[in-house]
Write a structure and sequence with these properties.
The chain has a three-stranded antiparallel β-sheet. α4 runs antiparallel to α6. The protein is globular, with a radius of gyration of 16 Å. The protein is of the alpha+beta class. β2 and β3 form a beta hairpin. The protein is built from six helices and three strands.
C-alpha cells in the first residue's frame, strides 16, 4: 500500500477511503460513488483522486476498463496516437496509487467483477455502465502525459492526453510486481 494511501481515513473494516469518495452522515463511505466537491478540489489542486496529495507536473495515471484498454492497445499496435475525446468522471492519480487501486477495488481488479445493482445518477456519461454487468475481459493502468478538466455545476469531467505507459491486465493482481517496484523507487532510502 502506498504510504499516502495508508494515511487516508478508514472505514469500519479498516479499508482506506479514497480522496474523492463521499461519506454518509452516519460516517460510512460510499465507495462506488464520487463526491463532486472532493473531485473538484482534487482537479483544481492537481491532487491524486486516491490519496489526495499533490501530483507533480508530468505524467498522471488512471485505471481504464475493457473498451478503453482495447482502444489504447489498438492505437499503440498501429503506431497511432491515442486520444479519447469523450470525457470521463474518473480523475487521475499517482502511478503507485492507481496500481494499488486497480488491485483492491473489486470492480477494477477482476474481469468477472460486476457493477453493483444499487446506485443512482446514471446519465449520458454513465448510462453505458449497466448495473450488474461484468467489467469485461481486460483493463489497464495507463499513464498519460497530462490531463484537462472542466468543473461544471454538477460534475467534474476529465480528458487524458498522450499515452506514456500502458500496463494491461485481465486480473489486476498481475500489477503486483509493478506496484512493489514503484513503491521501492518512491521510498526514501
Amino acid at each position: 500500500m502506498p504510504p499516502s494511501v495508508d494515511s487516508r481515513p478508514r472505514d469500519a473494516r479498516g479499508y482506506p477511503v479514497p480522496a474523492i469518495t463521499p461519506w454518509e452522515e452516519g460516517g460510512q463511505p460510499q465507495f462506488a460513488l464520487t463526491d463532486y466537491a472532493r473531485s473538484a478540489q482534487c482537479a483544481n489542486g492537481r491532487l491524486c483522486s486516491v490519496c489526495g496529495t499533490l501530483m507533480a507536473r508530468g505524467p498522471v495515471w488512471r485505471v481504464v476498463g475493457a473498451t478503453e484498454s482495447e482502444a489504447i492497445a489498438g492505437a499503440l499496435a498501429a503506431g497511432q496516437p491515442y486520444r479519447n475525446l469523450a470525457p470521463t468522471l474518473e480523475g487521475p492519480g499517482h502511478r503507485s496509487c492507481m496500481l494499488y487501486a486497480s488491485m483492491v477495488c473489486p470492480y477494477l481488479a477482476r474481469s468477472t467483477a460486476r457493477r453493483g445493482l444499487s446506485g443512482s445518477g446514471d446519465d449520458e456519461l454513465t448510462g453505458h455502465l449497466r448495473r450488474g454487468e461484468r467489467r469485461g475481459e481486460s483493463g489497464a493502468v495507463v499513464g498519460f502525459g497530462d490531463y484537462e478538466f472542466a468543473v461544471t455545476g454538477s460534475r467534474v469531467l476529465f480528458r487524458f492526453l498522450d499515452v506514456v505507459e500502458y500496463l494491461p491486465h485481465d486480473d489486476a493482481a498481475e500489477q503486483l510486481d509493478e506496484l512493489v517496484a514503484e513503491l521501492g523507487r518512491s521510498q526514501p532510502r
